[in-house]
Every structure is written in structure tokens, then in C-alpha cells.
Amino acid sequence: MISIRKILIAGVLLVPFFAGISPVDADIYRYVDADGRVHFTDTPTHGRWDMYRKEGPSVGTGHSSYRDIIRRCANSYRLEEALVKAVIKVESDYQPRIVSKKGAQGLMQLIPETAKSLKVNNPFDPSENIRGGSEYLRRMLDLFNNDVELALAAYNSGPSTVQRYGGIPPYNETRNYVKKVKHYLDYYRRSGDTLL
User: Fold this and answer.
1) Are 182 and 153 contained in the same domain?
2) Which pLDDT score is estimated for 58?
3) Would you say residue 4 lies in a domain?
4) pTM of the model
5) Is 31 contained in some domain?
6) Does residue 40 sit in the same domain as residue 133?
7) Residue 192, pLDDT score
8) Per annotation, catalytic residue among 81, 91, 128, 135
9) I need a surface site. Which of 6, 98, 156, 182 has the fewest CB within 10 A?
């Protein structure tokens, strides 16, 4: 005979499953400080945090949930949806909580100072991040007369660097970045509503 206790335990364990709640609801990052102490967080604040445990897929955080945000931001900032998708793909591969070694955060990899200037309070919130990244991308396109290559180079290495060199800077990282974004831009133009 099954005990009441076993039924209650099974019920408690199954409620999150049927409610669509993932038992892991955030990426966990690890950082070892100079004294050897290990720290964990779900909200990294600098680029020295390393991924410790990746968030599992959960309701409302899949790629398809970004489509409406991307469409809205692209329309607001007069951007091609395919361009916003391509930048997100190359910057973060659609991982909303990622932090680069340089401290860039979120889907469109906003540097904290840039995020602040764009009034992005939470760079890990997809809506805020995509809105801020789209606004910044629009600024770069305006600054460089809608030249997509120069705007992308400026998004990657900064507008002053592009101005100083009078074109795409001679950095492998920036040149590869522009190539990758253009590759995905072509892909998203052909595939329409798809997100990778």
C-alpha cells in the first residue's frame, strides 16, 4: 500500500513540472577571487565570472519569445529585423545572461557604460537589452551614413576606432565580426522568421 507521505512527496515534485516551472531557473556563474574564495551568482557583474551551470530551457525564454521584441525594436529604430537577429546571433548566440571577458552583457552584449547611456537598467532582460542594442545600432548606422559594414565595425570596436582608421579597423576580431554578422544577415534575410 502506498503511504500518504509518498503521495505528498510525489505531488510536491510534480507540481513544478505540470506548472511549467524549470527546477533550474537561472544560469549560475563562478568566480574565484585573489584569496582563492569561490563565489557564485546568477547575475555576473564583471567579465571574470565563468559559466558554472547553464540554465535549462524554460517557458517563455526560448528563441521564439524574442521574435516580437526584435520586431518591435526593429520597427522603432528603423532597422531590418534580419540585422538585429544577426547581431544577437553573433554577439550572444541568443543567451540572455552571457557576460564577455570585457564585461559586455546580455543578448546584444552591451558594455555597462553604453547600457547606462541607453537607459538600460537590466542588461539581462531581453526586452531592455534588445531595445538598447537596437538603439545603439541605429546610432552607428546614422553616424556612418547607413553603411552596414562600418556600423557593425563600430558596434564591435567603437565608433572612434572606425573614425580613426577611416574604415574597418585592421583587427582580426572586428573583421571576423563584420563577416559573421553579414553571413547571418544573409541567412535571416533568406529564412525570414527563423531564429537559430
Assistant:
1) yes
2) 38
3) no
4) 0.69
5) yes
6) no
7) 76
8) 91
9) 6
Same domain, 68 and 164: yes
Amino acid letter, 193: D
Q: Which pLDDT tens digit goes with each residue over 90-120?
A: 999 999 999 998 899 999 999 999 999 999 9
Give the residues of the chain that fall short of pLDDT 50: 5-25, 56-61
Give the residue numbers spanning the domain of 146. Answer: 63-191
End-to-end CA distance of the chain: 50
Contacts of 108 (CB under 8 A, 6+ apart): 87, 88, 91, 92, 129, 130, 132, 133, 134, 136, 137
Say yes or no: 40 and 126 in one domain. Answer: no
Percentage with pLDDT > 70 across the chain: 72
Answer yes or no: 91 catalytic: yes
User: Are 94 and 119 contained in the same domain?
Assistant: yes
